[in-house]
Write a structure and sequence with these properties.
The protein is mainly alpha-helical and 271 residues long. The chain has two domains: 24-185, no CATH class; 189-271, no CATH class. Helix content is 79%, strand content 0%. It contains eleven helices and no strands. Helix 8 (190-199) packs parallel to helix 11 (232-270).
Length: 271
């Protein structure tokens, strides 16, 4: 007679692990989404204020690769702007981008708070690793672009002088490095993308390994298209981290699948 009460007592343990998000109404989801968006916009606005303060110093920092490339080719390293509002618009744009980068941990945390009610307890515990990994990989991509990619790209481009000399506009230069740095920052998020695909069961480490040759082919095509110069060295520099990050993603997928299998096995034994 004692076994049924014991089973009944053990039964609620799984519902306690169930996601609470399903208990929210559609209107409550909208209210929660509105709250998270407002908090994110406030964080970006405050970050942009800080960005505006440091923007003039940051301009000096981002122009260094171009000035070095010009000096190497014995050219005037002075960059220019071609309209009265050119430098001011650059500072405003730079302040906004810096604000987004500064506020990115808070924005990511707001995204996590929005989706957390739909997750299990063991999945919620991954918030610290998620935030740290996302910000770290994005900044690592920017650092790779600034210190390694840009010098090769700019040296190649400035080398094509012909009968004319370059007169570099700071606004056009900023558009170029923005494309390179943000593009590499997003590309370095590949392990995070593979992590989510693995969490939702869309890919597995076996699938990723079996299709690695096709992935490398796609990476080669992407490098050929996205690299702003046609030389092979720059394309290889662009490809190397992408291929490395792909296999980091394979390892991440293996960890995700391994943990899921252990959890399912423990639940099966508990039943």
């Amino acid at each position: 007679m004692s076994s049924p009460p014991e089973n009944l007592a053990a039964a609620p343990s799984r519902p306690q692990e169930e996601a609470a998000g399903g208990q929210m109404t559609f209107f409550e989801h909208l209210v929660e989404l509105r709250k998270r968006i407002i908090n994110s916009l406030i964080a970006i606005a405050l970050g942009s204020i800080v960005g505006w303060i440091v923007a003039p110093h940051f301009v000096e920092f981002i122009t260094l690769p171009m000035q070095r490339a010009l000096n190497q080719h014995h050219l005037d390293p002075q960059l220019i702007y071609t309209n009265p509002t050119g430098y001011l618009s650059l500072l405003i744009t730079l302040a906004i981008y810096l604000g987004i980068v500064i506020a990115s941990p808070i924005v990511l945390y707001q995204i996590w708070l929005f989706v957390a009610p739909a997750l299990y307890r063991h999945e919620k515990s991954a918030v610290t690793g998620f935030l740290f990994s996302t910000v770290f990989l994005f900044l690592a991509g920017i650092a790779f672009g600034y210190f390694i990619m840009l010098p090769h790209v700019l040296d190649f481009l400035i080398g094509f002088q012909g009968p004319v000399k370059p007169l570099i506009s700071i606004n056009e230069y900023f558009e170029l490095i923005l494309m390179v740095l943000l593009g590499l920052g997003l590309i370095f998020e590949m392990p995070i993308l593979i992590f989510f695909l693995s969490v939702f069961g869309i890919v597995t480490p076996k699938f990723l390994v079996q299709n690695s040759k096709y992935a490398i082919l796609l990476i080669t095509i992407a490098a050929a298209v996205l690299t702003p110069t046609p030389d092979a060295l720059t394309m290889l520099i662009f490809m190397a981290p992408m291929i490395g990050l792909y296999f980091v993603g394979v390892a991440v997928s293996w960890v995700v699948v391994r943990r899921r299998e252990r959890r399912l096995l423990a639940e099966a034994k508990g039943q």
